[in-house]
Amino acid sequence: MRFNKKYVPLIVGVAIAAGIFIGEKLNFTDTSDRLFSVNSKKDKLNRLIDYIDYEYVDDVNTDSIVDVTVNGILDNLDPHSVYIPKEDMERVADNMKGDFVGIGINFYTYKDTITVIKTVEGGPSEKVGIKGGDRILFANQDTVYGKNLNNAEVIKKLKGPIHSKVTLGVYRKGESQLLNFTVKRDHVPIKSVDAAYKLNEALGYIKINRFAESTYNEFKKELTTLQKQGMTELVLDLRGNPGGFLGVAERIVDEFLKDGKLILFTKNKRGNIKKSFATKRGDFETGKLYVLIDENSASASEVIAGALQDNDKGTIVGRRSYGKGLVQREMDLGDGSAVRLTVSRYYTPTGRSIQRAYKNGSKDYYDEYFERIESGELIDEEKIQVADSLKFKTPKGKVVYGGGGIIPDVFVPIDKGMQNETIMFLERRGFISNFVFEYLDENRHAYDSVSRDAFINDFELNDDIVVAFESYLREKTDSNITFVAYNNEIKQYIKATLANQLYGNGAYYEVINKFDVMIEEVLTLSKAP
């Protein structure tokens, strides 16, 4: 919300007292005599807000002022203490819980119509026969298409209480009449394990995208399946994983470390130390392990990499991780909003803190991340800056460093082809996914007889699809992007996205990993004596 400049002094005034407001909502003990004139600072903010509500000459949205003030306070603490407004809580909670109640589709608004990209495997829509390419026109006879289509409104109509039903009117190409499907809403998983499969007879692969409540159970299920298939070595891919629940990361580490090994310890402002140790329940304590990390592996991902590295378990492969060593706890603010407040630091078993410095504020903190990229450290490991004062040794004498991320045991530079900035931008912004959807919308039946394995291992796209994608970009962006130097790379991303929309269930990574330089490095290491 934009504020008139004349309200700036007002906001500053509110900021002076706002910390007390947070203290009240967090249920901190107030030992004062609660006299306004003596020490009841919490009442000051309440009174000030009341004065503004009832006495101030103009109408002011005091709720918005409080939100701005809370954000301002947190900005002055550390980069990872954050405020979660009431309107965002459901989405954030669903993401970290690992599921939500809905009908289980991934959709794309195509020509003013909700069009199914694919159904969630095992979800309510798949069970009743809804398919990729279907257009949803009605939900309980309410229209859900048109130029004024609003995604938020559509989602509201599709979501609902668990086990409630919604009847969908669906147009499907090739069908002469509208199809009706009655879908019973249910828990729909938000998967945190993107892929799990075998790279070869001995080497398994598991990709985790975050650490939610459901992540350990997902991981354990896939680990057990791969072991039953004869896996003796594992690649754990944590690239791009921003973290999540610390306790979930600890449980995953426990699968690899022997009983009694230190996983990490945390320390709060009072100096209280809490240690976490491995138990007897690990099922992959003797197997060979490779952990993939990059500059976007953070927090709980770094807990895993640091715990394994400091215990001389496995090999960390990739590039220096993000450098987040702070622990947050979510605290309810009483009005549906919450704050994630940093309450302690975590340390790896050797005593390393891997948190990057933030004393100069959040802007410098995030700028330092980009400075790493500009310095060349993603290409040359000699460019990684380390401090001798932050040197530590593992039990077997390996030198490791604190002070800003986990430095891998085996460095792999960024692939300038597959990780070309333009291609990465187009993928993140959904251009490749949307193009593939529109391509499939015209050509879906051409793949009816192509099996998942045959597509992944044998199917080759020709250059025509790259030309079509270039034409699509010109139409959508008015740009003149060509892929002369990256023809093969863009074909692989298109193929991987095709695999995802046709087959799901990790097919994207099975395609893209065939051209992944870190996977190639692991395959080389795995064969080494």
Automatic annotation (TrEMBL):
Residues 81-159 form the PDZ domain. It comes from Mangrovimonas yunxiaonensis. NCBIfam families: prc (TIGR00225). The chain crosses the membrane at residues 7-23. GO terms for cellular component: outer membrane-bounded periplasmic space. Keywords: Hydrolase, Membrane, Protease, Serine protease, Transmembrane, Transmembrane helix. GO terms for molecular function: endopeptidase activity; serine-type peptidase activity. GO terms for biological process: proteolysis; signal transduction. Gene3D superfamilies: 2-enoyl-CoA Hydratase, Chain A, domain 1 (3.90.226.10), 2.30.42.10, 3.30.750.44. This is Peptidase S41. It comes from the Bacteria. Belongs to the peptidase S41A family. PROSITE patterns: PDZ (PS50106). Pfam families: PDZ_2, Peptidase_S41.
